[in-house]
Each structure stands twice: as C-alpha cells, then as structure tokens.
Specification:
Blueprint: H1 2-5, H2 8-19, H3 21-29, H4 34-38, H5 47-71, H6 82-89, H7 96-114, H8 120-129
Length: about 130
C-alpha cells in the first residue's frame, strides 16, 4: 500500500484531498434535477450512474482492499467489476441524492480506516504499552 510509504505530512495531504471529494460531488451534482441526473453526458454516463459507481467502488472495492491490506500479509486483491455491478444494480433507476450520501458515508469510513495508519512498529509499541 503506497499510502503507508508516504511521510506523515504527505499522508495527511492525501487524506485531505480524498476528504474533499464528497463536497466536490455535492457541488457538481447537488442541485441537479432527477431528470437531468439520469441524462447521459458526453461520455455516455449520467450523473446518477457516476455517483453510484463511486459509492459502490468505495464500499466494495477500496474498503475491502484497505481492510485486507491493513490486516493481511500479501493479500489477494480481486478486481472490482464496475460494469457488471452497474448493469446488475441499474444505477439510472436509483436516487442521485442517495448515491451522493452512500459515497459520502463510504469515503468517511475509508478515511477513518486510514487515519492514523498502523504500521508494524507502531502496533508493537501499542501492544507493549497496552
């Protein structure tokens, strides 16, 4: 996990950047009507599809990877099949507001898992002091 190799200052900068994403999405999509949220953009993807993809990727992709990287030695990290998930869940039928909230919650949980990171030597110190 490259994050663990960063200096504490660089880790903090990265966490701040990651924590800004929910506000960015709120600003970009917060005032969008339900009809406009389902309209495809130039890339063929709607706002509601983008938000739900990010929420599911955060929960089922990144959260799983973070947990496994923090708790296992050399874990196998399967791919997240976003196209399959999007098709199965029919994102366009879902609420944009709910997608934004799902992403917000998932990102907050992932950031909490990374802050502060527990390195092996820090864990040994905690166990000894415990």
């Amino acid at each position: 996990m490259r994050y663990m190799l960063l200096s504490p200052a660089d880790q903090q900068t990265l966490l701040e950047q990651l924590s800004a994403m929910p506000a960015f999405l709120d600003q970009a999509f917060g005032g969008v009507s339900a009809a406009d949220a389902r309209a495809e953009g130039a890339d063929g993807v709607s706002a509601v599809e983008q938000c739900w993809h990010l929420a599911d990727l955060e929960r089922e992709g990144y959260a799983v990877r973070i947990r496994r990287l923090l708790t296992e030695v050399e874990p196998a990290l399967p791919d997240f099949d976003g196209e399959r998930v999007a098709h199965e869940r029919n994102y366009k039928s879902l609420s944009l507001e709910d997608g934004l909230e799902a992403f917000r919650r998932a990102r907050a949980e992932n950031l909490a898992a990374l802050d502060p990171p527990v390195r092996g030597d820090q864990q040994l110190e905690r166990d000894a002091a415990g």
